[in-house]
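This part of the workshop introduces the protein records we will be handling. The structure tokens are whole numbers drawn from a learned vocabulary of backbone shapes. The record below serves as our worked example for the rest of this section.

===
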Amino acid sequence: MKLASFYRQYLLPGIVFQSVVIGGGYGTGRELIEFFLRYGPTAGLVSMICVAMVIWCVVAAVSFAFAHVTQTYDYRRFIKELLGRWWFLYEVCYFVILILVLAVTGAAAGQILLEMFGIPYAAGVLTITVAISLVVLGGSSVVEPVFAVWSSVLYAVYVILIVFAFVRFGDDIVGAVSAGEFREGWVVAGMRYAGYNLCIIPAILFVCRHVQSTRGGLIAGVLAGLIGMIPAILLYLAMAGQYPAIVDQALPANFLLGALGSRWFQIAFQITLFGTLVETGSGMIHAVNERIDGAYREREGGMPRLLRAAAAIAFLAVGAALSSFGLVDLVAKGYGTVTWGFLLVFVLPVLTVGAYRVAKGRAGEGTPVRS
């Protein structure tokens, strides 16, 4: 197998997954505090690796294989194959999480520019909105290479971060993680975190067109879970050395960077994080555009470019308006609430109906359902 083919089939789905999942909560460290570190450094790490990451690997593997078996590469067709006439339940949940993600993205961008450079909060929200709009308008031909390049940058920055953190706070990190603190609820928290993040899998299926076999889909899914979680583990370990003071910070990553005392790296990290916010927002909206484009192609051709722009602007406007609630409240209350919906309408069906269909290899089964 040629290197380019191997990359597109096995690695690119994971890179796109990681690019979208990192978001304003994971990248800033706020999600990692809310779902993991507040249960204790030891409990949080175990929950990340043994609960959340395992669930990500399994569900992504079955989902990518199911997409290949059924040849469904936009979330509308994928979910219709999975849920039948109840497919609309996923779309309701997806629109809710889309707005929440865009609100978190806007809030994080505003907070970053405010804390780092003294730029007004609203200006940060506006800047991220314009950047996301430009990426979305380019379609898949722009989204895929942008995600691939920026994910490489992100991994490099996170590796540097953990090296810096261990050099400065190595004993604190080891002491916190080995302390054995387990607060009640850490297993459920890991499941909740995995559940709401997995909602994006149907949204990134456009990249699974490169998968050439059911086995390839399974391998790509397992790799996606690993690729998606490794940066979170690195950031978590670095933050653990600042426990418990870091728990109450709106931007935990920025608090950590301040403790490291390197202004140039703090700026580099925040620039990288800003780029990941663009990835997350554009990936979520691009999925909606691909869903609309799929419906158009079934009837009268591709989605008009003007409509692609209008959809992006509409969602971004609502997300920008909600960003005023602040990053902490949006992550703690918004994400936690919608988690159970995705566990019921996506994760459970994938692990039952999806796994059965993959095992049986029923490619092209049934007549496609039209909207």
The two ends are 38 Å apart (CA to CA). DSSP finds 14 helices and no strands in the chain. The first helix runs from residue 3 to 21.
